[in-house]
Amino acid sequence: MKYKLTDQIYEYNGVKLHRIQAVNSFGEITEGEFGGWVEGEKNLSQKGSCWIADRAVVYGQSSVTGNARVYDRAKVYDRAVISGDARVYGDSWVYGNAVVSGEAKVCGYSRVGGDSWVGEKAWLPGNALLRQDQKAVGIVPQLIGFGKFGISLFENEVNVGCLTFSYDDFENGKAQEFAKIHGYSDMEFQYLRELFRFHKAFFNRQKQLGE
């Protein structure tokens, strides 16, 4: 047994959460150290060096296992799984049936839900959004806070605000029309288009290396 549930109670969204406290030293955690908040022991494995710290909350049927860490103000709930050496931090949320594993990092104000999977060395910064059954591996999504909207780049599409464009949309003018309406200058759009071309080439290169 590496931690216990304390008598410190915190109610979040109608769920009673307990603050955790280490009863043994392990990894970077020292005996007696307080951690974050869980609904019960089902949310944090007693094995490995996984840990929940700071003001992070993990509840529902979700679980943190292996050497994973959840900290800052992050929230993990529903049936989400954080495993391996994954890190979930900042103000990010992981929920639904989502899985974050490997050496993946989810941070900032990112949202990962549905049946999404974030694995290997993926990094979801800023306001990145994965929904339904999207997958992120390697260093797939990069987010650029540019202009009025965050830009999330994925293997086959680009999210601009709440809209989704294909890479081809940046060549045929569809995305440029949207950009002008929402205040992007021609110079800003040209910069973004060059950036998208670079990432498209990067994804193609990643595929070739994986074959």
Question: How does the SSE layout of this entry go?
Answer:
Layout: E1 3-12, E2 15-22, E3 34-38, E4 51-52, E5 57-58, E6 63-64, E7 69-70, E8 75-76, E9 81-82, E10 87-88, E11 93-94, E12 99-100, E13 105-106, E14 111-112, E15 117-118, E16 123-124, E17 129-130, E18 135-136, E19 142-146, E20 149-153, E21 158-160, E22 163-165, H1 169-172, H2 174-181, H3 186-210
Parallel strand pairs: 3-5, 4-7, 5-8, 6-9, 7-10, 8-11, 9-12, 10-13, 11-14, 12-15, 13-16, 14-17, 15-18
Antiparallel strand pairs: 1-2, 2-3, 19-20, 20-21, 21-22
List keywords for this structure.
211 residues; eight-stranded mixed β-sheet; UDP N-Acetylglucosamine Acyltransferase, domain 1; 2 domains; alpha/beta
Would you summarize the structure shown here?
This protein is about 20% helix and about 35% strand. The chain is of the alpha/beta class.
- Give the number of DSSP strands: 22
Report the order of strands and helices: EEEEEEEEEEEEEEEEEEEEEEHHH
The total of helices stands at 3
Q: Which percent band covers the strand fraction?
A: 25-35%
Return residue spans where pLDDT drops below 50 for at least 5 consecutive residues: 137-149
- Give the CATH H-level superfamily of the largest domain: Hexapeptide repeat proteins
- Taking all Cα atoms into account, the compactness measure Rg is 19 Å
In whole angstroms, how far apart are the ends? Answer: 44 Å
Q: Summarize the main sheet.
A: 8 strands, mixed
CATH architectural name of the largest domain = 3 Solenoid
Shape: elongated
Structural class given helices, strands, pairing? alpha/beta
What is the name of the CATH class of the largest domain? Answer: Mainly Beta
Mean pLDDT reading: 79
Strand order of the largest sheet: 1-2-3-5-8-11-14-17
Question: How much helicity do the residues have?
Answer: 10-25%
CATH topology value of the largest domain: UDP N-Acetylglucosamine Acyltransferase, domain 1
Number of domains: 2
